Structure formats: C-alpha cells, structure tokens
Amino acid sequence: MIEKPSRPFSHIDTWVFDLDNTLYPHHVNLWQQVDQRIGEFVSAWLKVSADEARRIQKDYYRRYGTTMRGMMTEHGVRADDYLAYVHQIDHSPLQPNPAMGAAIARLPGRKLILTNGSIDHVDKVLARLGIATHFEAVFDIIAADLEPKPAPQTYQKFLRDHRVDPASSAMFEDLARNLVVPHQLGMTTVLVVPDGTREVVREDWELEGRGAAHVDHVTDDLTGFLLGLAPT
Predict the structure, then answer these.
(1) Which residues pair with 189 in a beta bridge?
(2) Closest CA to 124 of 86, 94, 168
(3) 15 in helix, strand or coil?
(4) Fewest CB within a 10 Å sphere: which of 5, 32, 93, 122?
C-alpha cells in the first residue's frame, strides 16, 4: 500500500467511489474494451480512419472530460446511441471480490458511486464483483445531465441530489484530475493507482498526479486501504 497522509477519515460518514479502474484493478483492463469501442464509434460516425479516430477520441477525452461529450458538442451525437454502443463489452474478466465487499460494508455511513459511465454498465460491473448491495445509490452520466467529471457542476449536482456534505465525505478515484473539485469542496480525496505488478493499458497522463496537492491519499490496494480505515 502507498499512502500520503493528509486529511484524516475519522469524521467521514459518506464514501463516494468512482467505478472503472477504481472498484476493480487497473490490470483487468476492462476499460480497454470500452476504449476500443469508442474508437470504432468515432471512426464510423465521422467516417475517418482508425488512427484519426484515435487522435480525435483522446483529444476530446482530455478537453471535454469524456469523448462522448466532445462528440455531442462537436458533431451532434446522441448520448443514448453512444452509450449503448461503447458499453457492449465482455464483463467476464471481472471476478467476484467478496473481500472488498466486506471492507466496504464495514465502513461507517453511506456508500455511493459517482461515475462518467452509464447505470447499465455500473450494474453489470457491480454484479460481476458481487458488491452491488453495499451501495445506496449510483450517480451516472445521465444523472449528471451528460456533463462528465471533472466539470464542477457535476459534483455540485451530485452533492445536492444525494444530500451529501462534502466536509464529511471521501472520494475515491483513479484519475487525479477528477479529484481537484472534490478537494476544493472539502472532500477527503484518495487516488487509486495500479499496483505495478501487471501491465495496464492507460495513457501516461491518466497515471499522473500522485503527488498533487489535491490528492490527500494514494493507494495501490483499495481493499487493504479500506480495511485499514474501517472500525474493527
């Protein structure tokens, strides 16, 4: 486990988790399937080569928070069409994780999911992991009015809709840039990073930010980290 101590957890009563590459290990590379289908969607919609689609895909991802938002803004894509296509993936690489489920269950207070994915994708991931019963609610990209993290209004709407006090909440994420606003709002932030033992398929910038001021804690073992927080 890697940890950079900063804001404590003693006052936390609401635990907010991202989904992809957070509630399951980076090296599962499930997101690689989604990433590939996004590229296929962009290529078909814009009638460009796979290489050009890849360039556009990653450009929009960085500038808009998600490729979907870029495609909606720049090319009039409908969110329903996009989400239905890109989340048609094989979830079988995910294995049940009862140890993490038990660690989440021991945390005092509410547990919520805040994701840029769709509720359908969330349901499939949680079902494979066997941890769906531990979460009170999911705030997905539709609930966010199609505005993805790291847009400030997305976090603000999440906090309002679920009556969450950021000062007594913790946010777990795999992208450091998605922790900037939560930290500004007063949330305790945790960056979940690869454990370094197996290859991960990510852009270099997606793995940055471990030493950023808005990252309070860093871990490469979410289950172990949570077990260290929960009361015995």
Answers:
(1) 171
(2) 94
(3) strand
(4) 5
CA-to-CA dists, residue 130 to 94, 99, 107, 125, 190, angstroms: 10, 10, 17, 8, 23
| Residue 76 identity | G
C-alpha span between 21 and 29 (Å, rounded): 8
Give yes or no for a contact between 117 and 38, defined as CB atoms under 8 angstroms apart. Answer: no
Q: How open is the CA angle 32-182-137, to the nearest 5 degrees? A: 70
pLDDT (tens place) for every residue of the chain, 232 residues total: 455 556 789 899 999 999 999 999 888 878 889 899 999 999 999 999 999 999 999 999 989 989 999 999 999 999 999 999 998 999 999 999 999 999 999 999 999 999 999 999 999 999 999 999 999 999 999 999 999 999 999 999 999 999 999 999 999 999 999 999 999 999 999 999 988 766 666 676 677 788 899 999 999 999 999 999 865 4
Cα torsion 125, 131, 134, 137 to 10°: value is 10
* Number of residues that this document lists for the chain: 232
Q: Residue holding tokens 């998605």? A: 178
Exposure string of 80-95, with b = 16+ CB inside 10 Å and e = fewer, is eebbeebbebebeebe
Q: Is 232 exposed, middle or buried (0-12, 13-18, 19+ CB in 10 A)?
A: exposed
Q: Contact 16/168 with Cβ under 8 angstroms?
A: no
